[in-house]
Amino acid sequence: MTDREILLFPDPRLREVSKPVLEITDDIRSLAREMFQMMYDEPGIGLAAPQINERIRMAVVDTRWGEEGAEKNPIVLINPEIIEREGKITWTEGCLSVPEFQADVERAFRVKVKALDLDGKEQVYELEELDAVCFQHEIDHLDGVLFIDHISRLKRNLYVKKRKKVLAREEEEPEQKLPPNFFEPGKS
Ligand code: NI
């Protein structure tokens, strides 16, 4: 079980630049496990450490597990760097830290990413399409960049306004704390 929460826009902590991981310790390994659990629970295809208030350069991704017949393929990226980019693709993106919003974002169609794995080994990933989009999105988080930074100011401002309204409403009527087991099993 985890009591961590995913930080939500406009939390300023999402805007900070994360620090490199200097040593892959047991804490790092257990954080990676927790991140996968949270990502699969949400559900999502990527989660970066700063989204759960750990400002280190680590992210977890698994882009295809939700597709029919697909198996899980969890990948941990430690200190990832994009070393090549090519072409362009527009993809409709969302983010666990940007509630109730999706927008078309233009990114590189193909990227080569180098990162350490949990054994401290350097891995090079050659990615395209959704995989390339997801890796770029997660690496952005490590620099305090959100996908809404890549859309027009007009669209972003509309979202910011909507989000402020939702937050103001939540402040007026704070969410009720529900007792455990309130939800029927099978629902979320
Ligand atoms: Ni995100």
The secondary structure category is alpha+beta
Kindly report the name of the CATH homologous superfamily. Answer: Peptide deformylase
Number of helical segments?
3
Order of helices and strands: HEEEEEEEHH
Summed over residues and divided by their number, the pLDDT gives a mean of 93
- Percent in helix: 25-40%
Give Rg in angstroms. Answer: 17 Å
Sheet with most strands: strand arrangement = 1-2-3-6-7
Sheet-strand content, in percent, reads: 25-35%
CATH class call: Alpha Beta
Number of domain units: 1
Fold-level CATH name: Peptide Deformylase
What topology does this entry show?
Blueprint (H helix, E strand, L loop, with lengths): L25 H16 L4 E3 L9 E4 L13 E12 L2 E7 L2 E10 L2 E7 L5 E7 H14 L10 H20 L16
Antiparallel strand pairs: 1-2, 2-3, 3-6, 4-5, 6-7
Would you give an account of this structure?
- This protein is α+β, with helices and mostly antiparallel strands.
- The protein has one domain (12-172): Alpha-Beta Complex (Peptide Deformylase).
- The protein contains three helices and seven strands; from the N terminus they run αβββββββαα.
- The protein has helices at 26-41, 129-142, 153-172, and strands at 46-48, 58-61, 75-86, 89-95, 98-107, 110-116, 122-128.
- It has a five-stranded antiparallel β-sheet, with helices on both faces. Strands 4-5 form a two-stranded antiparallel sheet.
- The model has no long low-confidence stretch (mean pLDDT 93).
- Nickel (II) ion binds at residues 95-97, 137, 141.
